[in-house]
Amino acid sequence: MVRVEPHRSQISGDEVEEERSDSELLTASATEPGVFTELYRRHAEDLIRYFARRTLDPEAAAELTAETFAQAFASRSTYRDTGANGVAWIYGVARHQLGRFFRSGRVDRAARRRLGMPERELPSADFERIEDLVDFAPIRGAIAEALETLREDHRHALRLRVIEQRSYPEVARELSCTEDNARQRVSRGLRRLALVLQERGLQPATEPMTEES
Questions:
Q1: What distance in Å separates the CA atoms of residue 140 and residue 137, rounded to the nearest whole number?
Q2: Angle, vertex CA 82, rays to CA 76 and CA 85, nearest 5
Q3: Among 25, 136, 157, 202, which residue's beta carbon has the most beta carbons within 10 A?
């Protein structure tokens, strides 16, 4: 999984960090950068799920999660504890990143570049694990219609993977390509598909986001 976390050597102890609230950790991270790691540990999985169900694309979800934590870390000194759950502030950063994604069709990497974070390819196991977080069932009808707007190779890959629910080895055999290439076609197709659905007012995710989600 793409990770965005300070060095653990800066942390004074896991037990101490687990006792602090999200707001306390955010406030402390301004002068103790290492404690930000605990915020990542607590909320990375939920944030990946949040992005996966809205973008449909595992690679985009992983990148948006990384960029959100990078941006939150870079701007942590601006956080002010007003009594609200601290994770709400992180989700505010997440919503901003998601809005930029839907407007531009790509994931911003500015915060990661400023922090000098290397770009990493999403491993196949993580790709499929994140893909499993997306519930395609409620939007299969919309997907079938929106598929017609995609280029042929992406459309064919998505039909096999999403509509027919074939495994990646099967998709690769059908497309006469490697499994990595099949995942890439599916990923690019899903990214474009999410943008098409967004343009049509069909939000991929149906569950409301709460401060704790």
A1: 5
A2: 75
A3: 157
CB environment 61-75: b (16+ within 10 A), e (fewer) = bbbbbbbbbbbbbee
DSSP assigned state of 164: S
The tokens describing 2, both together, are 């793409």
Q: How many whole angstroms separate alpha carbon 2 and alpha carbon 61?
A: 10
Q: Is the dihedral of CA 80, 37, 108, 111 positive or negative?
A: positive
First to last CA, the chain: 20
pLDDT band at residue 175 using 50, 70 and 90 as cut-offs: very high
d(CA 38, CA 125): 24
Domain boundaries in the chain? 8-114, 124-199
CA angle 43, 45, 46 (to 5 degrees): 65
Q: Which fold has domain 124-199?
A: Arc Repressor Mutant, subunit A (1.10.10)
- Cβ neighbours of residue 42 closer than 8 Å, sequence gap 6 or more: 22, 87
What pTM value is reported for the model? Answer: 0.78
Phi, psi of 7 (to 5 degrees): -65, 135
Give the tens place of pLDDT for each residue, 14-35. 555 668 889 999 999 999 999 9
